[in-house]
User: Fold Glutathione S-transferase from Acorus gramineus.
Amino acid sequence: MMEKEIVKEFPAGKPFFSGERPRFPDVMVGLTLSWISVLERVIGVKLVDQERTPLMHL
Assistant:
């Protein structure tokens, strides 16, 4: 579900949420994803399933 919402907000063919350059939303998503990856390693539990969310690269 989350990926469907992200895809709707993502400009077609653009590398970032804001278009050609990274801005605040891009930085916040990147920071959040990196902490999820760290948390998964610390607690030893997979929080993000790559099969269910293939667009989220951790």
Remarks:
- DSSP finds two helices and no strands in the chain.
- The chain has one domain: 2-43.
- The longest helix spans residues 24-43.
